[in-house]
Amino acid sequence: MNAFPGATVRDCGQILSSIGSALRWIDHDIDERSDHTRRVTLRTESVDRLLGAVAQLATIAPITVEGPAELVERVELLGRRFAGATGSSS
Fold first, then answer.
1. Which among 49, 19, 13 is positioned nearest to 31, based on CA atoms?
2. What is the reported pTM?
3. In this structure, which topology does domain 2-86 adopt according to CATH?
4. Buried-most residue among 13, 25, 71, 73 (CB within 10 A)?
5. Rounded distance between C-alpha atoms, residue 90 and residue 88, angstroms
6. 3 state SS of 43
7. How far is CA 62 from the centre of its chain?
8. The predicted structure's pLDDT at residue 3
9. What is the mean pLDDT of each run of 10 residues along the chain (90 residues)?
């Protein structure tokens, strides 16, 4: 199983339990940072599963995807397709 730096999640109050709940089926670590964010590192066997976990995190709080590059590309593609599906230009 590989460890991927998955996402940085902004601290939005009491979201820590929501993050843990969303990721209960994937091996992960949550590290608090001094800038009021939490860094989530995910260990999974595929980038596809990683994408699903990152999508779940994005429904809880604003996120920044750090890598790997393949995941960043897929998140960008998914964002464009979701924006097109809703008629949004951003």
1. 19
2. 0.73
3. Alpha-Beta Plaits (3.30.70)
4. 71
5. 6
6. strand
7. 9
8. 58
9. 56 63 81 78 84 86 83 92 80
